[in-house]
Please model this.
Amino acid sequence: MGEDVYYITSAIPYVNAEPHVGTAYEIIACDMLARHHRMKGRPVHFLTGTDEHSLNVARASAERGISPQEWVDEMVPKWIEVWRRLEISNDDFIRTSEPRHAERVQRFVERLRERDEVYLGIYRGPYCPSCEEFKQEKELVDGNCPIHGIPVEYLEEENYFFPLSKYQDRLLELYKERPTFVMPETRRNEILAFVRGGLQDLSISRTGTDWGIPLPWDDRHVIYVWVDALLNYATAVGFGTDDPLFDRVWPPNAQIIGKDITRFHAVIWPALLMAAGVDVPKVVFGHGFVNVGGEKMSKSKGTGSHPFELLDHFGVDSYRYYFMREIQFGQDGNYSWESMVDRHNADLANGLGNLASRVLAMLGSYFDGIVPEPAADAADDLPTVIEDAVRRYDEHMAVLALSQALGAVWDIVGRANRYLVEKEPWKIAGEEGRRDELAGILYAAAETLRILAIVIRPIMPGAAGRLWDQLGIELPLEDQRLPGDATWGGLAAGTTTTKGDPLFPRLDS
Model:
């Protein structure tokens, strides 16, 4: 088992359209977690990718008069470019049309067949083309898909089935033994109710299309897209062909997904793994939706803003910070341009940015940019406040409470700004005999900035790096470790600082 490696995965989105702000929300959360665990000194494997064997992709490509493969080859670079602009630090990117994925998926389903976990039958019932999911009648709302609100299709076709129903008790035992397997609590309760209500066997193949991975024993069938897609988490780390890699990384520590696909990941996925004799993930976390105007953003409805629209105006650090701070991770939340401006100006420009500008300007004016010697008791309660905030930040990150983690960090920002107001170093600078006192105050303020640069790096790597450079610290920021290097007293007197440009210029609405 991969006890040492922190393996984190995002869901892999369909590439039937370009990314929007809602799809980017999830990948930022994953990246924040991955960067945090790297700063904890832990090896990290962060996987994302694209789900390409979708009938929606086949339909979209047909409308363009090109093949599905040509469509996805055209679309995938657009997703990769968005992740690059967002400074996503993934270690691997899996495409489900890749040969490495197809070969390993076929090995997995062959293992299921060898274990008597596959049988041939006829599927009759409702199917949502947008979800690409077989539905149960009890789920429908006035005959429509409960997620997309569109009429379902009624299918009757030959499929190979996985006996999901026989895993009901084993799944319930899993949820009982590991209460944090499904997070947050609201998702767990939904899954418990769903499984207790009874499970139906699952179609694992489709006929009538050649866009997909053929079943290895019956090439009239392609593997159902959701089985194909779920297996990316295992195929990307070598299932069936690279045992040393798989054994080192598996199982995932955190699988971050949207709440609308929690059932696939918290019911079907662990049952498939149990059937194949593979360890299940440690945590499946179903986050909420990013809403605009009270409605979930949607590629199919054209209601999602492209991330570039916001990145060009707010910059990557403000963008990343806003969505992780504004929307409590695990719940639905609303986004608007106006709230982004307000959050940027309040927290970043007036908060952290103003703190850095004032401290670095005063160091330049009063000490020629050189960090002075610390003075006993000059820091007041700043070391205690920081120690408590860093502890709470670490605790929140451990349970995927990302918004609360950033709230703990901003407790440091707020206290540091109040500290300067209370101490009034700009007044002390003009008074005889108080230079040592001034030195102690500015050392404490600069040391606070050093610690802030470390703890904001997982969410705002660019701003953290700029602040670190302005502080003039020779040790690379990427070599700093949490929590040890975020303890008080690490800034060396004599370090040469530079004021530089503002970290976060104010924005007009």
Notes: DSSP finds 18 helices and 16 strands in the chain.
